[in-house]
Amino acid sequence: MAILPLAPGETIGILGGGQLGRMLAQAAARLGFDVAILEPAPDAPAGRVAAHTVRGAYDEPRALEALAAVASLVTFEFENVPASAVAHLTAQDVEVAPNARALAVAQDRVEEKSFLNSIGVATVAFAAADSPEGAVAAMAQIGAPALMKTRREGYDGKGQRWVEHAAEAAAVFESLGGKPVILEAPADFVRELSVIAARGRDGELAIYPMAENHHENGVLRRSVAPAAVSPALAEQAERIAAQVLTGLDYIGVIGIELFELSDGRLLVNEIAPRVHNTGHWTMDGCEVDQFEQHIRAIAGWPLGPTAAIARVEMLNLLGDEVDAWLKYAGEPETRLHLYGKRDAKPGRKMGHVNRVSPLGPERR
Amino acid sequence: MAILPLAPGETIGILGGGQLGRMLAQAAARLGFDVAILEPAPDAPAGRVAAHTVRGAYDEPRALEALAAVASLVTFEFENVPASAVAHLTAQDVEVAPNARALAVAQDRVEEKSFLNSIGVATVAFAAADSPEGAVAAMAQIGAPALMKTRREGYDGKGQRWVEHAAEAAAVFESLGGKPVILEAPADFVRELSVIAARGRDGELAIYPMAENHHENGVLRRSVAPAAVSPALAEQAERIAAQVLTGLDYIGVIGIELFELSDGRLLVNEIAPRVHNTGHWTMDGCEVDQFEQHIRAIAGWPLGPTAAIARVEMLNLLGDEVDAWLKYAGEPETRLHLYGKRDAKPGRKMGHVNRVSPLGPERR
């Protein structure tokens, strides 16, 4: 088992070799750790900045054992880590953080909303269905229109469709693959916000200022942080973050997506048990960013400060938008973060820019 | 030859796998580059955050060819790169930056001071000697006491001794190994300052605010930046930086160590054709730090802003001082940068901390 607080020089394992793994690896190295990446694809972005790379499937025992041979502490960059992987690592005396419960809750949209409601955190109304008939019945419960999503997997707007009329429910269910689904009532929101927060080994909490997020076709396009919010709204978000982190006995950074309703209430849309795209602004807007914060939390270190030191507009560079790197590099207020991905497929997250400006005087 | 501006996805080679190479590698990766490290020692700190590592001596043709096979642009983390290495890389159509002239000037203390004086930049009075008799004659020219240093190599106070009386000159010469030396008149300085500056491919200059530096036993202990200086002193330093960069037709970041005399004049003590320990404060005190700036400059990118966004006290962690990592991690104002070195030998640079505080209102 990892000896905590984990000392510099030790190796931290990361499941997943994409951009989140890459930025986690860089933060870990800054603190003196070595990093080992487990990733099925060759030439992964995170592997190219890490001391060790293990190539293999996430549920492949041999790959997990190779990771366990170098890393006594393992974390992940994505929520769809197979439960068997966590179990296999744990059986080899490897500490996995965040915990299996956080993964289980985040992997199933019905579990997620049920958990949130059980700790007193509001979500949209929802109902589960695992058959065409069940989908029709769920529609009767929720009312039309409703958003049908597969319970598991699906991200960036994939695996979901609107059901405009109850009569379509069975057909939409089939079109999503006939898998178990959740039906969600629409949220009459005025803004999409998110809160990035961390919980340490001793229960310490660190909560960043909220970001205001703008999606296009289900993919995050832009975040602005700190979001302009009333103290009451900020307090509401902090209370939600604290409830979720404590309720999951969570260790690490979590991303919580929120809907702000016109009456000022916040609903939780989704939780991501990992560093989060809407937290990329912290790389240039805070002294300790979400990546270092996550490493600190899982390593049993004290958490770092979360106050904003600048206002940031974060813009994702999708697909060939990354070709404008030279333009961004020439903007004095723009910090460029590129992920080293070889192939700029349409819509693929290739990098992001943080456009930095001074905080308003009211925020210092 | 490297096609400039170098596009993200290309590979940058770095001679040297220590902490400067490591921090350069991390900055390069943030901009989407891959990095290849050439380093004779195994398990080098920089290699553990780089896509490629070539193990070999800096002047070993096979190692240089292996580097050239992946990197069309090569830079270095230390000034004692053999001239033959640069020649061998250049012969293979690899672009090396900074250039061979900057290396030659920085590798020989007599060349260095002669160059500086030739472009109108002041240094202490000096004289060269390559025999015991020559050392005696040089003392007659400079006067006692004088500081005798080997012309080449020697860093962090190694390879140098004070000559208190002219009569000792021959013996001190022998004690330094009988190698060619420089004799330097003492500088009656009130402060040690430094300026970190960069020059881009198109001659663009970027100059950081000065740091005030404190050495112990010849090793940098502490830097405070931006140093409290008059506008006239800042202007003098900027003029020196511009003269040196332009005079060397320099590409990349340079570190220039300065003596501030009681009459307000600045003398150049030493130039380092690379990122510099007294520039580590920029990692948390500026939007674009010296490492990213160096990568931008050599890659032919536009240079980034250099204005300070915070006041920083940088403290080197030497030898077992690094064992206090947990204390530093618990200080909210302290940013920790550890180098991943295995062995905390006495005096070895194991990491640094940047203690961040707001800029005074006069500096915004």
UniProtKB/TrEMBL annotation, chains A, B:
Pathway: Purine metabolism; IMP biosynthesis via de novo pathway; 5-amino-1-(5-phospho-D-ribosyl)imidazole-4-carboxylate from 5-amino-1-(5-phospho-D-ribosyl)imidazole (N5-CAIR route): step 1/2. GO terms for biological process: 'de novo' IMP biosynthetic process. Pfam families: ATP-grasp, PurK_C, RS_preATP-grasp-like. The gene is purK. ATP binds at R109, K149, G154, Y155, D156, G157, K158, G159, Q160, E192, H215, N269, E270. Keywords: ATP-binding, Ligase, Nucleotide-binding, Purine biosynthesis. It is an enzyme of class 6 (ligase). It catalyses: 5-amino-1-(5-phospho-beta-D-ribosyl)imidazole + hydrogencarbonate + ATP = 5-carboxyamino-1-(5-phospho-D-ribosyl)imidazole + ADP + phosphate + 2 H(+). It comes from Phenylobacterium glaciei. GO terms for cellular component: cytosol. GO terms for molecular function: 5-(carboxyamino)imidazole ribonucleotide synthase activity; ATP binding; metal ion binding; phosphoribosylaminoimidazole carboxylase activity. Belongs to the PurK/PurT family. This is N5-carboxyaminoimidazole ribonucleotide synthase. Signal peptide: none annotated. The lineage of its organism: Bacteria, Pseudomonadati, Pseudomonadota, Alphaproteobacteria, Caulobacterales. Residues 113-299 form the ATP-grasp domain. Homodimer.
